[in-house]
C-alpha cells in the first residue's frame, strides 16, 4: 500500500520516485496574522542526505518506538493535550508529522478528527498502516510513507501534531520539518501541538558521578592509577551525557536558553542559538558542570507582548537571550498542559543532558557563575549539535568547552 504507485487508493499522492529527486515547491497563500512572514516566499525542500536516510532507518527499529511509547509522561501528556483540544480536533483535518507507529494520529482519530494524515519517512510507516487497519481507522487515518517535505496531500490541515523533541530539545533537528509542514499545510489560525518549547540550563554539583568516573582511579585496590585521570576525564566528560539527576544536584534556578514559539519560529533561527547566563549559587559546593532540559507547552498562539520583545533579540540566524533570563518558576499561560523533562519532575526517556567540566570549580554560596552557550547545527550533519560553552566564576579565570552531541 505504501510504495510503488504515485497515488494511493485514497487519491492522495504518494512519495515514491519524488523522494531524493527534484525538489517540489510549496503552495502559498496570503499572509495572515501571526504567520504572515511564512507566506511570502516559496518553500525550499531540503535534500534528503545519506545522514537523513540513516536517521530514518534508525526509526524503523521497534526498540526506539517501544521506549517512546512506554515513556508514560510523554505519551499520556500528548493524549491529555489532544483531549484538551478535542473541540479543535473533532471534525477537523490533522497532520501528524513523524507518526512512527501512528499512536498520536490514532489518538486524534479517537478524539473525532475527520481525517488524519500520518506521515513518516521511516519504514515504521508500514507498521503504522497495519495498526491503523487493525483499529478499523483506515477511512480516517491516511499513512503516508515519506518525508513531510516530499509528500503531497490535496487539502490544508487544521491541526499539526508532532513529537519532534530530541535531547537538548534541538538534537535530531526535526523541528524544521514541523515548520515546513506548518508553512505548507496549516490553515491560517490552525493549531500546533505542542505550541511552545523552552530549553533550560542550570549549574549542577554531582560529586558521586565525578567520584565514580574520575576519583576512582586514584586508588584502585591500593594501586595508584592517577595516570589514568586525564583519560578518565576525557572518556567521561568529553561529550554531553544523557542521564537522570535530581533537583538536589541543581545549584540554583535555571535560565532559559531558548524559547521557541512553534507558530512563528523560522528554521533559520534554529541553525545557531546563543544565550548568555548569570547564576548566583545558592550553596557552597563543587560545580561539576551544567544540566540542560526542556519543556513543551500545548497551547494556542501567544499574543506577543513587550516583555517578550525585551527578552529576545533576533538576528538573522541567532536568538540571543539577555542575562537576566533566570526564571524562578515556569510562567505558562492559563491551563496549558506542559510536558516537562526537568530534574524535579517525573523522569522521561529524555532524562537530562549534562555537560561536565574536566575539573570541578569550588563555588561559595552567593558566588556568581556566568558565561554563554551556543548550540549550532553541525555543518557535516545538521542533526548533530555543536556546543560552545563559556563559563567563569566571579573573580576567577574564564573557561571554554567545545563539545558536540552526535
Ligand atoms: C520521535 S518519533 C515520534 C513517533 C510518534 N509520533 C510517537 O509519538 O510515538 C519521530 C518520528 O518522526 C519521523 N520523522 C522525522 N522527520 C521526519 C520527516 N521530515 N518526515 C517524515 N517523518 C519524519 C521519524 O522517522 C520518527 O518515526
Question: Characteristics of this structure?
Answer:
406 residues; Rossmann fold; Hnrnp arginine n-methyltransferase1; 2 domains; 10 helices; 30% strand; disordered N terminus; binds S-adenosylmethionine; SAM-dependent_MTases_sf; S-adenosyl-L-methionine; Protein arginine N-methyltransferase domain-containing protein
Note down, in words, how this protein is organized.
This protein has 406 residues and is an alpha/beta fold. The chain has 2 domains: 16-163, Vaccinia Virus protein VP39 (Rossmann fold), CATH 3.40.50.150; 197-405, Hnrnp arginine n-methyltransferase1, CATH 2.70.160.11. It is 21% helix and 30% strand. It has 10 helices and 17 strands. It has helices at residues 50-58, 62-70, 72-84, 86-89, 103-110, 124-134, 175-185, 207-213, 229-237, 306-311; strands at residues 93-97, 115-120, 141-145, 157-162, 186-193, 196-204, 241-243, 255-261, 272-280, 285-298, 312-314, 319-321, 337-340, 352-363, 368-377, 385-393, 398-405. Strands 6, 7, 8, 10, 13 and 14 form a 6-stranded antiparallel sheet that branches. The longest helix has 13 residues, at 72-84. The radius of gyration is 23 Å and the shape is elongated. The two termini are 35 Å apart. The relative contact order is 0.13. The model is unreliable at 1-41, 305-324 and 326-331 (pLDDT under 50). Residues 56, 59, 65, 68-69, 98-101, 103-104, 119-122, 124, 147-149, 163, 174, 177 line the site of S-adenosylmethionine. S-adenosylmethionine (SAM) is lined by residues 56, 59, 65, 68-69, 98-101, 103-104, 119-122, 124, 147-149, 163, 174, 177.
